[in-house]
Amino acid sequence: MVHFTWLDYFWTIAYLILMIGCGAVFYRLGKRSGSDFFLAGRGLPWWLPATSNFATHTATDTPMWFSGMVYKHGLYGMWYSLFAGWCAISAWVSTRIFRRSLAGTQAEWATLRFSGLGAELIRGWLAGWQVAMNMFIAGWVGIAMGNVCNYLFGWPLWVGLVLFSTLCCIYVITAGFWGVIIADVQQGITMFIVIILVSIWAAIAAGGPTKIVHDLHALGLSEMLNPFRSTGFSGGEYPILWLV
After folding, report:
1. Which of 32, 52, 100, 142 is surrounded by the fewest CB atoms within 10 Å?
2. 159 plus 217 within the same structural domain
3. 236 lies in which domain range?
């Protein structure tokens, strides 16, 4: 359990008010039509969804997982996030096609792109896959928040999960995709600044980059500084095939 000062409580509460306030501010925009609620009217500039996507990948779970990968594998551990690159490429290729189709979901797009029994099977598979995948993601992110609250306040894991899931539901249900995007943007900007400040502070606390490198050499862990160390294409602990 960590002792909070009044300043810690102030910034925590202010951040939560700002996040939830997005739902109230954009309530009218989200309620104009179904397209506005689910797709923000299809008129968002590219940088808003892009910032939202960045914010999503700075959620509680991802920094914890990514830090663990680098701690365990060194700089080579950064390659474990390469799968996100394929997601970005697929989005870049398919976004214009998806937008021109005026589909509201991937499942609807599949039925527009294909026909007959095949289209219905694809639609069913997409629906089932997304339900299973998003249950896993929601659980992963929720438990990560539960762990943070357990560390900070000593709460049981389920309290942090339920509390912050409920807070998110408030602005999502109130303003739809508008609330999600705007809340994500302010979270993304905040996290970008925090990441820079914490990284600088951590490097200074560890004695600076030179001392970090020296200590790794002294511990016999110099290989952790090599981001390109591999054990071949398909064998060993760090195969290139796994990353591809």
Report:
1. 100
2. no
3. 206-244
How far is CA 51 from its chain centroid?
11
| Domain match, 126 and 225 both | no
Helix axes 61-73, 116-153, angle to 10 degrees: 80
Residue 1 within any structural domain of the chain: no
Pair (81, 110) in one structural domain: yes
Q: Which residues of the chain have pLDDT under 70?
A: 231-232, 234-238, 241-244
Give, in degrees to the nearest 5, the angle at Cα 14 between 10 and 16: 120
In a domain, 141, yes or no: yes
**If DSSP codes are grouped into helix, strand and coil, which group holds residue 38?**
helix
Cβ(51)–Cβ(189) below 8 Å = yes
The whole-model pTM stands at 0.80
* Distance separating alpha carbons of residues 212 and 219, to the nearest angstrom: 11
Residues 6+ apart with CB under 8 A from 187: 19, 55, 58
Same domain assignment for residues 66 and 45: yes
How far apart CA 8 and CA 201 sit, in angstroms, is 18
Residue appearing with tokens 């309530």: 27
Contacting residues for 179 by C-beta, under 8 A, at least 6 apart: 22, 23, 26, 30, 171, 172
